[in-house]
Amino acid sequence: MRKDDLYINKIDWVTILIYALLVIIGWINIYAAVYDEQVAKSIFDFSINSGKQLVWIGTAVVLITLIMVADYRLFDNLSWVLYGFFILILLLTPFLGKEINGQRAWFEIGAFRLQPAEFAKFATALALAKYMERPSVDLTNLEFQLRTVAIVLLPVALIMLQPDTGTAMVYSAFFIMLYREGMPQRYYVLGLSVVTISLLALAIENNLYLVGGIIVLTVILILLGKKDWKRIVTLSGLALLVIAYSYSLDYVVSKLPPHQQNRIMVLFNPDIDPLGVGWNVTQSKIAIGSGGFFGKGYLEGTQTKFDFVPEQHTDFIFCTLGEEFGWMGSLVVVFLFVSLLIRLVFLAERQKTRFARVYGYCVISLILFHFMINIAMTIGLFPVVGIPLPFFSYGGSSLWSFTILLFIFIKLDSHRIQLLGRMG
Q1: Could you tell me the pTM of the whole model?
Q2: Could you give the CA distance from residue 416 to residue 233 in angstroms, rounded to a whole number?
Q3: What is d(CA 162, CA 260) in angstroms, rounded to the nearest whole number?
Q4: Distance separating alpha carbons of residues 423 and 401, to the nearest angstrom
Q5: Are 352 and 402 in contact (CB under 8 A)?
Q6: How does pLDDT run across 145-189, given as a tens digit for each residue?
Q7: Pairwise CA distance, residues 265 & 261, whole Å
Q8: How far apart are the C-alpha atoms of 380 and 268, rounded to whole Å?
């Protein structure tokens, strides 16, 4: 291989440093989450999660090496192949996957499990970048909008067959990238409106209050305007549509599986069942709050030691951090994530090709979505949907998929000049 192929001097080492810090801090917190002073085991013990995570970290380093020595053109050329491969794997998962907690979302290989839906994220990102690199693709055109959204919705539909609502929800993050690339704002205003109305309809016990508020607001808007009958009919029709939606939402929620209904209800009333469905969030908030400003100290968290918070090494890893390292420790980790996202925006904006820029914003969108939802979940601002904290939570599928996702972009960035020459 030619020496200049590695482009060592063009690699963004700042991003790699932040990645390494997040992985290391996550690893020591995974050990804290499973630490038992009665049977104290080494952090390197392969029989516990920290030891297993070390194996995943080691193999992630191998993946990084393979990505960085590979030809940068490989990711562009194989975009559709990788997308098609993972679509096929997702299609087979509900039939051949191992069932865990009512979901067939994993393939078991010896003592390890892999979740195909996690790896399909970077394949979908590559497919979107490949499709949107064409100069003819214009997201203000309905035809291109539908084709682009279809690339995202196909894996979502297959993931819902498992069913894995939390992972399927993550794919909505791609709409952040689409906004950057010109998707009309009206869709985002509509989406935000639907979310707001949904939250209000679920939060207000008696929908009559919501209906009354909508009617009063509509009347005020009509009175403020002149007697424009077209406007009156439009506003009245919109008000009726919102009222119908708010009532239909109760019916839709009632048809969800009981555990999903409970997660939604706990969001608005954590005390509805503090020893049952509200246990996770309540204990997570207690753990974070009890950490105070500087925390109780490493391996000194009582909520952690006595397993008050289920899944504290995966989805609720942030509460372990908050209890043992306090507000300051949590702030450091949040600062690292924000710094990573800002750095990635800088890298995405300096790309010379649309392919690399679109892929970069896909990386940003996925990390941002996971980061925000996971932390919101642990402090009770979002329903528990089983979304891990990138580079931080225990699990090989999550670490591998985010590592591949990130380092493909780092590789593309290091060859941005050559990429321009090839695609120009």
Answers
A1: 0.88
A2: 54
A3: 15
A4: 27
A5: no
A6: 999 999 999 999 999 888 788 888 899 999 999 999 999 998 898
A7: 6
A8: 9
